[in-house]
Amino acid sequence: MRFVSTRGESQPAGFSEALLHGLCPDGGLYVPERFPAIDPRTLERAADFPAMMAAFLRPFVDGDPLAERLDEMCRRAFDFPVPAVPVGRDTEVLELFHGPTAAFKDVGARFLAECFEALVTSEKRRGGANRLTVLVATSGDTGAAVASACHRRPHVRVGVLFPDGGVSPRQEQQLTCWDDNVLSFAVHGAFDDCQRLVKQAFRDPRWRAAGPLSSANSINVGRLLPQAAYYAVASTRYRSEHGTDPGVIVPSGNVGNAVGAFWARETGFPIRHVALATNANRVVPDWFAGDEWSPRRSVATLANAMDVGDPSNMERLFHLYPDPSRLRARASSMSVDDATIRNTIADGPSRWGRVWCPHTATAVHFREQLPDPHWIVVATAHPAKFDEIVEPLIGRTVEVPAPLAELLRRPQAFERIEPELDALESRLGL
Predict the structure, then answer these.
(1) 124 part of the active site
(2) Of 6, 114, 152, 428, which residue is most buried, by most CB within 10 angstroms?
(3) Residue 303 maps to which CATH number?
(4) Is 418's pLDDT higher than 70?
């Protein structure tokens, strides 16, 4: 399997090379050169969730040095449950928040960290570079997941960039409670400024010359493929149990999670429709409504991890569907404002018997507007991460999962920087 650039001006790369590059040399994003046809029965025959994930990922890693270690890496990375829970009204909730940082980013980040460690260790044995630098821009959850997955791995150094004042208190705690090989930076600006800095670093010859550099954002194909895998698993299980193809409703910011659903469908898995729920940052729903693609400055919302005005992964969808009418026919999008997010959270216990995080609430509201049955709502974060929003609306405290509680007890350490590449470079000591 080879991976090519969405912009078509870089040489194809193997799986490991695409992971280490993160961003293509031409500034594009890696995508599979072709999508393999995977029989869903391959997953049904797998013994457990890690084996199902490996069965999906295997064709994408075929011929790569990491192929022989795939089963072992999946066993270590996916050591927490990812259940799909029926909630009535022909709806299931795919709970992606049972990992160590209580957000869906744990799935891709832990797999990516396993890949990084294996690749750098192998390179060191051959006399190559001793350490890989990983940059990650985060609007809330990605940075914590990557930091957790890579913390104290001796051959990987992580720089986490998050918007200063733009994340919840518990998110900030998770982003800044690290030491050793993880450095956290509060950037004066929005998520888009953090993402711009990461992309600038990849294009800067000084950074490339300083040593191996990669990204753990959803611009890295190694983050997206595990996300495609859990959609393959969830849709296969749903069809097996209900005899019909489900649609999936995905809270969407940088659109990487939704791209995973599209990629799972391209490989042959039974996903009827992909619905992208956004917050008040409505560049995606405006495009689906027929407007020209027009990225804009992001605005702050309750669902802050989705505060993205220029979502990178739309480039992958435009590459997959060169004809816009085909994409608009196979998917849809809705913008959900803060007032509606509040109402959906407040009504969650009585309407669904559930407590939602602000991000999942956007998908739940979208589901409530859809008359047709058989949907999987994607729950991207545990509501305890947003206690200051959720608890006043439901009138009680939300129990904190044990792994999250452990992170909340750690001391913080971070630096504030301006959104300039030189400021980041001096702090990382390149």
Answers:
(1) no
(2) 114
(3) 3.40.50.1100
(4) yes
